[in-house]
Design goal:
Layout lengths: L5 H28 L3 H12 L26 H4 L13 E8 L5 E5 L5 E2 L4 H11 L7 E3 L2 H6 L14 E3 H10 L3 H9 L4 H15 L18 E2 L1 H11 L3 H8 L2 E6 L2 E6 L12 E9 L3 E10 L2 E10 L4 H15 L15 E4 L6 E5 L25 H9 L2 H5 L3 H4 L2 E4 L7 E5 L6 E4 L1 H10 L2
Helix pairs in contact: 4-9, 6-7, 6-10, 11-12, 11-15
Length: 450
């Protein structure tokens, strides 16, 4: 007896199974098509008839916040610099610590890499303006040209067209609060206009021996403003010679008249509020191409130092990296201890000593300074990761985060409604718990406790 191939049998089984289903679908379609026209008109009229108002409250639709688009990778990330290992496990692609008086390099990581520098550009802008001996009391006006030139920042600025300010106050805002329009006004009103000012910036860079540095505009919004950590150390050393730049860049906050009202501005570098830091001059910066950046002159372990951190990956990580370096220097104050692989010894932290409230200022990054060179997607709101988790990730290494008390890790977080002064509040339940943590963890808790 002949047997049909398996494939033929399978096909026959499929057809037999599907036949009743196809017949039912065909019959249903015919019934729908044969519906009387009057019934169609009746059902259509019923559909168009306004619905009677219900006594029940309308159900509120759940608003789903859209997550901001992912940021493009920084130049340092594309170059693979963030994969560089170092003995302090820094989150920054580039780091340099130099003795200001002897030029001795105490710590270096990719210090020769040339990367975008964001608002650190404003330190050169301020240096050129200061050394030009222009009248600081001259009143300058914000125009639409300044608005257009800084439009790429996508941030609200309180310096609206028509705002009149002295050159000194604009310099203050550019240094302390990283105000982009203020920096652009300074460059635009320079003798000879913006082209002459950019030329002056590059001439000054060459005079300081900054061979890897190039400027194309005064705010830092362009990724074409580039430099290396070695060059920026020279810039910090030169800017530190001017008392006005030291004072304006390190002032924690200031209320300045804008039009008919007083407006509160604050420093983009949260470390100026920390009593454990003695900062003589500083500037922060951020654009996506540059990552988080900071340059500082500070006194640590009895030595005057210049510190440069570029292309830091997270919102708080450049501050965490600065704290790591500070603690490392304090624990290894002698020159012989500053060797590759040196790390601070672990200490004991009593969680029961933690205060009920820890306040972390979200203002150590430029994105919280209105008009600065940050993108709004970097805020803690709008569907991003939990702010506390982000802080732990940025501020601490994995080992340090693992040692953080569970009471802190599970803390409730709130963000102040005032967009100009966002404050992250961590509600911590004091518990009698002893754990081993690095000095960084203790420093992080102390520096933000009130």
């Amino acid at each position: 007896m002949l047997r049909a191939p398996v494939s033929v049998l399978m096909l026959a089984w499929v057809l037999a199974t599907m036949a009743p289903l196809l017949a039912h679908a065909s019959a249903t379609g015919q019934q729908r098509s044969s519906k009387p026209a009057a019934e169609v008109r009746k059902s259509s009229a019923a559909a168009n008839k306004p619905k009677a108002q219900s006594s029940q409250r309308p159900v509120k639709k759940k608003v789903v916040k859209r997550k901001p688009p992912p940021r493009p990778p920084s130049f340092g990330m594309l170059a693979g610099l963030r994969a560089t290992e170092d003995p302090l496990s820094l989150h920054s692609s580039v780091a340099l610590v130099v003795d200001q008086e002897t030029d001795q390099v105490l710590f270096a990581k990719n210090s020769e890499a040339v990367l975008p520098i964001a608002s650190i550009t404003k330190l050169m802008t301020a240096l050129v303006i200061t050394e030009a001996d222009l009248p600081m009391d001259q009143v300058l006006t914000v125009t639409q040209d300044d608005v257009r030139a800084t439009a790429r920042a996508n941030m609200r600025s309180r310096l609206v067209p028509g705002t009149r300010m002295t050159r000194e106050r604009l310099l203050h805002l550019a240094l302390m609060s990283s105000e982009n329009r203020a920096a652009n006004v300074l460059g635009r009103t320079y003798p000879g206009g913006m082209p002459a000012f950019v030329r002056a910036m590059n001439v000054k860079a060459r005079a300081l021996g900054m061979g890897d540095t190039r400027y194309v505009e005064p705010t830092g919004l362009s990724a074409d403003n580039q430099s290396s950590a070695q060059d920026l150390a020279q810039l910090v050393r030169a800017a530190f010679q001017h008392p006005v730049l030291r004072e304006l860049s390190t002032m924690p906050a200031a209320a300045l008249p804008v039009g008919q009202r007083q407006v509160q501005y604050r420093n983009t570098n949260g470390l100026v509020h920390n009593p454990e830091w003695d900062i003589g001059l500083q500037k922060t910066g951020y654009i996506a191409a540059a990552g988080r950046c900071v340059v500082m002159q500070t006194e640590l372990a009895g030595r005057k130092l210049i510190m440069v951190l570029l292309d830091s990956a997270g919102r708080y990580s450049r501050i965490g990296d600065a704290e790591r370096i500070r603690r490392w220097l304090a624990e290894n104050a002698t020159l012989d201890a500053l060797l590759p692989g040196a790390r601070p010894a672990p200490t004991s932290l009593q969680a029961s000593k933690l205060l009920p409230l820890l306040q972390l200022e979200a203002g150590e990054s430029d994105d919280d300074a209105t008009g600065s060179d940050e993108d709004p997607t970097s805020r803690a709101e709008g569907g991003e990761a939990d702010p506390l988790e982000q802080w732990i990730s940025d501020f601490m290494t994995a080992r340090e985060a693992a040692a953080l008390p569970a009471a802190v890790a599970a803390a409730a977080t709130t963000v102040a409604a005032d967009a100009d002064e966002p404050v992250l509040t961590l509600a911590v339940t004091p518990v009698a718990l002893s754990l081993t943590a690095s000095p960084l963890t203790a420093a992080a808790v102390r520096s933000y406790a009130e």
